[in-house]
Specification:
Blueprint (H helix, E strand, L loop, with lengths): L2 H13 L6 E6 L5 E7 L2 H6 L11 H6 L4 E6 L3 H15 L14 E5 L8 E4 L8 E6 L2 H14 L7 H6 L5 H4 L13 H15 L4 H16 L3 H18 L12 E9 L2 E10 L2 E11 L4 H12 L9 E3 L7 H12 L4 E3 L4 H39 L7 E10 L2 E11 L2 E2 L5 E4 L8 H13 L8 E5 L2 H7 L8 E6 L3 E3 L2 E2 L3 E3 L7 E2 L5 H31 L10 H11 L2 H6 L2 H5 L5 H13 L2
Parallel strand pairs: 7-10, 10-11, 12-16, 16-17
Antiparallel strand pairs: 1-2, 1-3, 4-5, 4-6, 7-8, 8-9, 12-13, 13-14, 13-15, 17-20, 18-19, 20-21
Helix pairs in contact: 1-16, 5-10, 9-10, 13-16, 14-15
Length: about 600
């Protein structure tokens, strides 16, 4: 595919992205993730890579030349996007991300509630140690500021267990009213536990009373024109809100679970499956299918389909509603997993938040698919108008042949359905009846063999070439099937080039295509894909021919013995130069050794 066609396809994909926070994954032509980024507006952010001037970063134009696809996961806020970006970079190790590659994680708050005198402890790892964890938090500065603010309301100890056990008198924090001095028994265990419970409630998001009190203090300070104190309260309020902002893409329970969401638009349903492993969102998969079944029936069939063929089944599945035959389905999944599987339809709490996030991504996926479909429909309409076709070209087939000096001539067919590659329809042909290099006859044979098969009739057949190729294959294409030839642009001298041209049977002159028109990019993508597919097949055959052709003439030499000879002597020339003793040492039977020696002698 040419750069122009690749960028046009990428622009179409980008225009269907949502205007919401999330993480985008830029992929190369092989589908490998080469860059992971976060965005407050996914469409605007990814679109900036495709502007000629980029987005101001030196890497943007560099990436734009290498990216062939883009995937995304929508999130509820930018905090979720930042956390998810961190996780996905560590999972995919993209080549062009220069940060977050280490194993360092975001800050978490740990509270060991089993301890007699719990304290807040900042860590970077969740562990299954019975403690209560909060986070992860994306803003370490805000976390530390929040802990200082909360310490003024709930004066829990700040010292380590070792210091707690060895102190004999209160420290400075007691004098500053930041600690109740449990080290020397100046606070009762019951009172201390009440402070711990209050702190836990605040960290779980019940910040209303604290924020109300700080907002009143901020208003009083502003009313007294003490603006510095008002600004300090403002910063504290913002720190508490940022620290306690809800997020759903990482949790402290380290559980493996999948969350599934559905979105429906008419008779088309999209399902989004969030895969969470050890409490972290690792990937998203979406599925589209037409159906009028109710949600419960859809979920039952979806779960049966997703978790088959040995695929991993997590112990917990979070669903938007209860599926049909839930008990029997859970038993089937448990048998596949080798352990119990819970099917839950949460109504509230963090689990419901994950289902909501899955439903959000399902809705974005169906909206993106609809946007893509509308754009492709308009594109096919433009192509129909430009080529004066009788119907919309929903199925387009493009053919090409490849040969070098008449050896191993092959043909290729690529199929585009609704403007998109349909890989299941791709075919390769080894030309059988044409001797020597005759591209016209080879192309005619390929088309004759194609239309001898029982396959869907295309709306448009495209061959790589001009009037001569078109005349050679016209008789092989049935009446009623539109046929055109696509000729590449030619150099005209002085740096000028002719436009891409489409040859139509019985037309006096070809149709000149505009270089920047969407229909030109579509036809160019077809031709480039057919050419790539043919060349790849031809290279494969050439490599086999180069490896085996000289040794194929030896009687009694099968694939195993041929491989053994090539490993021992490196090439056919090395085999030809080998002595009888060296051949016998491979080892080879005496008749095969004699055949090799006779072949080598005949080649002299």
């Amino acid at each position: 595919m040419s750069d122009e066609a690749r960028l046009e396809a990428l622009r179409e994909r980008v225009e269907a992205l949502p205007r919401s926070p999330g993480v985008y994954l830029l992929e190369d032509a092989q589908g490998k993730v080469v860059y992971v980024g976060k965005a407050a507006d996914l469409r605007a952010r990814v679109r900036s890579y495709l502007r000629p001037e980029g987005d101001g970063r030196a890497a943007a134009p560099f990436l734009a030349r290498r990216v062939a696809g883009v995937a995304f996961i929508a999130t509820g806020n930018e905090k979720e996007a930042l956390l998810l970006e961190n996780t996905l970079i560590k999972r995919h190790r993209p080549r062009y991300n220069v940060r977050l590659r280490d194993d360092k994680a975001h800050l978490c708050i740990r509270v060991d509630t089993a301890h007699a005198w719990p304290r807040l402890h900042m860590v970077r790892r969740f562990r299954r140690d019975g403690a209560v964890y909060f986070g992860p938090f994306t803003d370490a500065k805000a976390v530390r500021r929040t802990i200082r603010i909360l310490g003024a309301v709930y004066p829990l100890r700040l010292c380590s267990d070792k210091v707690l056990a060895s102190r004999t008198r209160p420290c400075l924090y007691y004098q500053l009213k930041r600690c109740g001095a449990p080290c020397v028994g100046l606070v009762q265990p019951e009172a201390y536990r009440e402070q711990v419970d209050g702190m836990l409630a605040l960290l779980r998001g019940r910040t209303g009373p604290l924020l109300d009190a700080m907002e009143r203090a901020m208003g009083e300070a502003a009313g007294a024109r003490d603006y510095e104190r008002a600004a300090a309260y403002r910063d504290r309020i913002e720190a508490v809100r940022r620290t306690t902002q809800a997020q759903r893409v990482a949790g402290a329970d380290l559980a493996d679970r999948d969350a599934i969401g559905l979105a429906r638009r008419g008779e088309v349903v999209a399902a989004a499956v969030l895969h969470l492993r050890e409490g972290r969102l690792l990937s998203l998969r979406t599925h589209h299918f037409p159906t009028i079944l109710p949600d419960g029936a859809i979920l039952a069939r979806l779960l049966e389909s997703i978790y088959r063929d040995g695929r991993f089944v997590p112990p917990e599945l979070l669903l938007p509603t209860e599926p049909e035959d839930a008990e029997a389905l859970a038993a089937t999944l448990a048998q596949r997993r080798g352990g119990p599987v819970r099917l839950l339809a949460p109504g509230r709490g963090p689990a419901r938040g994950l289902v909501d996030l899955a439903e959000q991504n399902a809705a974005e996926a169906i909206a993106a698919a609809e946007g893509d479909a509308e754009q492709r429909e308009a594109l096919l309409g433009k192509l129909q108008e430009r080529l004066s076709l009788a119907c919309l070209p929903r199925r387009i087939e493009c053919y090409d042949v490849s040969t070098i000096q008449g050896a191993s001539t092959v043909g290729s067919r690529v199929v585009f359905l609704e403007g998109l590659p349909h890989k299941e329809g791709y075919r390769r042909f080894r030309v059988r009846t044409v001797a020597g290099q005759d591209d016209f006859a080879s192309l005619r044979e390929v088309l004759q063999r194609r239309f001898a098969r029982e396959e869907p009739v295309p709306d448009l057949v495209v061959v790589d070439g001009g009037a001569a190729q078109l005349a050679a294959v016209r008789a092989a294409v049935p009446e009623g099937v539109a046929l055109v030839g696509l000729a590449k642009a030619r150099a005209l001298g002085g740096g000028a080039r002719s436009p891409e041209r489409v040859f139509v049977p019985d037309a006096a002159s070809p149709i000149a295509l505009l270089g920047d028109a969407p229909e030109t990019y579509l036809l160019a993508r077809l031709r480039d894909e057919a050419h790539r597919f043919a060349i790849a097949y031809h290279r494969k055959l050439r490599s086999k021919r180069a490896l085996h052709s000289e040794l194929d003439a030896i009687d009694g030499l099968g694939p195993r013995r041929r491989t053994a000879l090539l490993r021992r002597f490196g090439s056919a020339r090395g085999v030809r130069a080998a002595s009888r003793a060296e051949l016998e040492a491979v080892p080879l039977p005496a008749p095969v050794v004699e055949a090799i020696l006779a072949w080598a002698k005949a080649a002299l």
